[in-house]
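User: Quick one: structure for sequence A, then sequence B.

Assistant: Sequence A:
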Amino acid sequence: MIKIARSYTGVPYRIGGNDEQGIDCSGLLCNTFKEFGIKLPRVSWQQSEFFPAIDIPNIRTGDLVFFSVNGKVVNHAGIVTEVRSEDEVIFIHASTSKGVIEDNMMTNYWKARFASACRPDFGK
């Protein structure tokens, strides 16, 4: 799953986008899971409710993470690509300014906007 998501690294951000010409955060998740025959909802707040929720101390590679960037509604999503320590949890997402990149979700910026996490169920 991580390999598929990383294949989009560097693709520019485009709202509503879902291909190599431009992609948004929920499109990145949709395209990644489509490779496994799983049809995720197209918007991030619905994606956040699709799989069972987990707590941050239990987070691991492959988990989905969701953020409220502009207020209280979940409007940003990513996939955890590496858990290096409790202070360094790397996730891939579609940044509006930098396209598809990996960031540490334990920075002050992302921690302040964290909304939830869930663990994919590939039997769904």
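Sequence B:
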Amino acid sequence: MMNLPESDSEDELPPGWEERVTGDGSVYYANHLTKNTQWTHPRTGKKKVVLGDLPYGWERCIDKSTGKVLYIDHENHRTTYTDPRLAFAVEEKEHINDFRQRFDASSTALHEQTQE
């Protein structure tokens, strides 16, 4: 029997996994079942980063009792251990010129390369 995700989103994390962010904005994944971490998404194998500053009204602090990073939303008077920028994380490009190109069945690029 195949272990299929509960949703159709390949970006959704498997049960027991959590997405976290380092101080420099690199996204990593924590597996609470095995107590391991990794840089690549457990389903897609992609790396992600968060860009830019925290949203307006947010502050990054260290919880003195635990030493963990926490985020304070001063606008809505709440705190969380989850970086609010995670919702907008983007795939990290391996090369500066790295881009995705969809296959187009009408493209003649392959034919032009093979012709002499």
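The radius of gyration is 20 Å. Residues 17-92 form a domain with the Ubiquitin Ligase Nedd4; Chain: W; fold (CATH 2.20.70.10).

User: Thanks, that's what I needed.
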